[in-house]
UniProtKB/TrEMBL annotation:
This protein's UniProt keywords: Antibiotic resistance, ATP-binding, Cell membrane, Membrane, Nucleotide-binding, Translocase, Transport
Localization terms from the record: Cell membrane
UniProt xrefs under PROSITE patterns: ABC_TRANSPORTER_1, ABC_TRANSPORTER_2
This protein's name: ATP-binding cassette domain-containing protein
Sequence ranges assigned to domain ABC transporter in this UniProt record: 6-236
Family statement: Belongs to the ABC transporter superfamily. Drug exporter-1 (DrugE1) (TC 3.A.1.105) family.
Membrane topology: Peripheral membrane protein
Primary site of residence: membrane
Organism encoding this protein: Streptomyces kurssanovii
Pfam families documented for this protein: ABC_tran, DrrA1-3_C
Amino acid sequence: MDEYAVSAEGLEKRYGDKRALDGFDLAVRQGTVHGLLGPNGAGKTTAVRALATLLRFDGGRARVAGADVRRDPRQVRRRIGLTGQYAAVDEVLTGRQNLEMFGRLFHLGGRRAALRATELLAQFDLVDAGDKGVGTYSGGMRRRLDLAASMILAPDVLFLDEPTTGLDPRSRGEVWDAVRRLVAGGTTVLLTTQYLEEADRLASRITVIDQGRAIADDTPDGLKNRVGGDRIEVVAREAADLPAIAKTVARVADTDPTTDEPERRVHAPVTDRVAALTEVARTLQDERIPVEDIGLRRPSLDDVFLRLTGHGTQTEEAA
Ligand SMILES: Nc1ncnc2c1ncn2[C@@H]1O[C@H](COP(=O)(O)OP(=O)(O)O)[C@@H](O)[C@H]1O
Ligand SMILES: [Mg+2]
């Protein structure tokens, strides 16, 4: 068996003059969650659709679940699942009926389809909701049902294209749990996301994509370290207090704090985030220095981009 469940070398996809994929490389280890992180328009969906045989690519090579994507697309299709940003489930049917319907689409036969539906409802924590109409489901429940539907035939490799975009934090957590359970069951997951935090929570490795090309491939910690990790941030009420605030922050920070005068903001990287926050808040209060805001900031996708490319995330709209 291959060490990699997904590998791509130099993938190219053009739409007219637009290079949606421009020499894209990827290697996803068996049995892991691999994050494909990038802003809107970076090429994530194009990459996933090309790897899932739904889109012909113009150049390069790719293997998925042990088969060559270009030469053996049928083989690939038999071994993968794909979940898009929008669920393809029927609103009127119950969760169970939807899963049974998908099962029959995959030629499972009535009894096996019903059995599989029961298993999947349990696996995705939808037992109570299973017999209610999908129209009554929350966003998180719908995404979980969508995940369950893509698992009818327990694929070797599952592509999840922005599975939590638009979900509230609680539903997002539920989807994350479902993804973890899938991987515990042996499935390899390629997950696209615009959230560094999501990739950090789920993935053991992250590829950052920009303009159709991989610009970094690293562990979540490696990536965060390059960006400088967590930061403490204090916004002063009075510009005159900035030096005193910088002095206080310096006592807990890993490097000299940065003072952003126009924003009246002092920030610095910290290792023990909660201790740093507590210490700075207490000292400022003791010294009666008024602050507008104080908090901890985790690095965002934008921070990653700034560090890797020298510019922020340029989405289509902004470019
Ligand atoms: N069918 C298409 N026709 C023309 N351009 C497309 C098409 N699909 C995607 N693109 C362009 O290719 C680039 C990558 O798109 P996409 O893969 O959807 O990015 P992402 O999923 O990361 O947001 C974008 O510039 C997008 O506008
Ligand atoms: Mg997309």
